[in-house]
Amino acid sequence: MPGANIVRILDGNTFVVSEDTGDIEAAPNEPTGLFSLDTRYLSKWVLTVNGERLNSLSYDDLQYYEARFFLVPGVATHYIDAKLSVIRERAVGGSFRETLTILNHDEKAVDLEIRMDAGSDFADLFQIKDEILNKKGELYAEAESDRLRLGYRRGNFRRETVVSANQPARYDKRGFAWSLRLEPNEQWDAVIDVQTFAIGPGGRDLRIGLRAHGVERLALQQDLEEWISRAPKLNSEHEELAATYRRSLVDLAALRFSPLSLGGQTLPAAGLPWFMTMFGRDSILTCLQVLPFAPELSKTTLRILAALQGTRFDDFRDEDPGRILHEMRYGETAAFEEQPHSPYYGSVDATPLFVVLLDEYERWSGDGALVKELEVECRAALKWIDKYADLIGNGYIWYERRNTDTGLENQCWKDSWDSISYADGTLPPFPRATCEVQGYAYDAKVRAARLAREFWGDHTYADQLEREAAELKRRFNQDWWVADRGFYALALDPDGRQCDVLSSNIGHLLWSGIVDEERAPQIAEHLVGPRLWSGWGVRTLAEGEVRYNPIGYHNGTIWPFDNSFVAWGLRRYGFTEEAATVANGILDAATYFDGRLPEAFGGYQRELTKFPVEYPTACSPQAWSTGAPLLLIRTMLGLEPHEGHLAVDPGLPVGMGRIELLDIPGRWGRLDAFARGRLNLDDELAD
Asked: Where is each Mannosylglycerate hydrolase MGH1-like glycoside hydrolase domain found (predicted)?
């Protein structure tokens, strides 16, 4: 649908992407249609009246889970009024419901043929993404007296879409229709239910527990209201910040995903349209961002990742004992092992981050029971860091895919093929070790030492972890420091040669605490210096590097999530003004996206573009972009749990005005935080 206005509604893993008329005509390589569990259940959904397509007057995406389209046949003009109007109202909530309303504004009765063409290619999301729709099973369509059944079967793998309506219709294999007569000023309504089924061996619906059988709009609305009411209340003189905050809470609610094994408990899915599923890294980082606002997501995420932790050596899935999964998929290509995401373990950062989240969650919640419950899994993750991730034997975390056909080449967060390079632009050989992952490992060991001492009663292990962390920090600051340029290398190659490019990864090093104190000022200066800082945010790769491209996926774009952790790291080392600068740039950018930050946007200088330029294929909404404003609010207010209490140390940008964050949940119950920013630079001089 090139050039068309795209309307998206979603509820966890179920989402609909359509034109602004509500129609769906999906090409094999377009992520449009009705999707659930990584499968497209509707690829054609086209409404006609008397054989004529409809035109859009306007549409509303009322809530994240519903939309309304106002349509007319033909093209209304200033001189010829439309005599008929059509309203399509739709909602998702595990499945899909659409209400049609047709109104006759003419002075005479009209005879109408209302038809909905319906079809499905049951494409796997990976097939769409890779632009290879090669179905090996059988598509079928069965028209019954009261419903249309569309299906796909391949061995025990079966998916079905069942369409029915409350008004008797004529069903055929390509859709359904009504013939009706509308009197002057008469209104006609029909409710269409679309149920999706993932059928396993024995005919069992695998979607049980996922609201598979019907949309309960009232329940969805009530759930959203309860979700927002549980979050802290933000009062701000900065109206755009308040709007962005609410948008983030709503999008976070929309992205909640309930895996099949959790019985309704939720964790954050990564992003629409490609990543509406469980990711290790993305889910963990999002949970870290939103801990002061939605702590329950962390508990669910930790439990499900622990339950699916690697237990064996599996080259196809890049699995090792103790390794935390990267991605879980439920579609056809995963079921038949045409790609390894069932689950796939090819990331090296999710495992140390799992330990980091467990500690941070306990520091906020006081949930020592979960720390004790996950002791075995936490120890296994730490063992993976030392035993299985150290491919060279020099104490660092390295990666090299064992699945050379469909595994990920780069297994860090910058996972595009060309994201890791030397200063001359060439790519290093494998295995590779990226800097931020070593910081995560350091942080994991420091935090695990606390858990071991306070909850597992193992002081010997705690002392060992602290010694290992101190040694890792010493060696890292020796091996990764690019002395003549004053920053840490992005990565090392297997010979120890530095990938000596300036990147945003150095901000993650501040967050982890692995940076030597005397070097931190240079890192802070780089992060807000002209090569990395665009005015909107910190670029992934510095201007002037050979591979720099302001719209290169990981080579010059700005990622809001990345910037939120950069700001958090700056605050950790006491660079309050620099952190406020980063926060202000990203929050300013959010206003140009109606409060919904995309996955990434262009790294152009602010003075050049005057507004942030969205990356062409960015996910939106995306979980860790949704979480970025929340972490930035935490960072600006200086919220940190400290010895069982909540510490508040505000550092707001100039012009931010007063911020109140009320009812912040934690082990302390609920507390309030207040801050006032300087109105302008004159206030600073007056002080």
From this structure: 413-592
Q: How far apart are CA 420 and CA 435, in angstroms?
A: 11
Say if strands 44-49 and 66-73 run parallel, antiparallel, or are unpaired: unpaired
Residue type, 287: C
Tens-place pLDDT, residues 408-452: 999 999 999 999 999 999 999 999 999 999 999 999 999 999 999
In which residue are the tokens 């990226």 written? Answer: 434
> Which neighbouring-strand residues pair with 57?
none
Identify the pLDDT of residue 271: 85
Task: Inform me whether the pLDDT recorded for 221 exceeds 80.
Answer: yes
Q: What is the pTM of this model?
A: 0.92
The DSSP secondary structure of 653-676, one letter per residue, reads PTT--EEEEEEEEETTEEEEEEEE
HEC-encoded secondary structure of 65-125: CEEEEEEEECCCCCCCCCCEEEEEEEEECCCEEEEEEEEECCCCCEEEEEEEEEECCCCEH
How do strand 267-268 and strand 256-257 relate by DSSP bridges? Answer: antiparallel
Q: In angstroms, rounded to a whole number, what is the distance separating the alpha carbons of residues 391 and 309?
A: 20
Looking at the chain, the number of H-run helices and the number of E-run strands are: 18, 29
Residue 376 CB neighbours (<10 A): 11
Q: Which of 106, 4, 121 is nearest to 53 (CA)?
A: 4
Q: How would you label 13-41 residue by residue, b for 16+ Cβ within 10 Å and e otherwise?
A: bbbbbbbbbbbbbbeeebbbbbbbbbbbb
pLDDT of residue 216: 66
Alpha-carbon distance of 322 to 355, in angstroms, equals 11
**Which residue, 659, 666, 614, is CA-closest to 641?**
666
Task: Yes or no: say if 58 and 159 are a contact pair by the CB < 8 Å rule.
Answer: no
Q: Which residues pair with 271 in a beta bridge?
A: 275, 622
Please check whether residue 397 is in contact with residue 437, taking contact to mean a CB–CB distance below 8 angstroms: yes
Q: How far is the CA of 286 from the CAs of 365, 423, 472, 631, in angstroms?
A: 17, 31, 26, 9
Nearest to 669 by CA among 300, 358, 232, 226: 232
| pLDDT tens profile 253-296 | 999 887 766 566 788 888 888 888 889 999 999 999 999 999 99
Helix spans in 389-527 (H): 435-454, 459-479, 505-512, 520-527
d(CA 648, CA 525): 25
**Please, is 308 exposed, middle or buried when counting C-beta atoms within 10 Å of its C-beta (0-12, 13-18, 19+)?**
middle
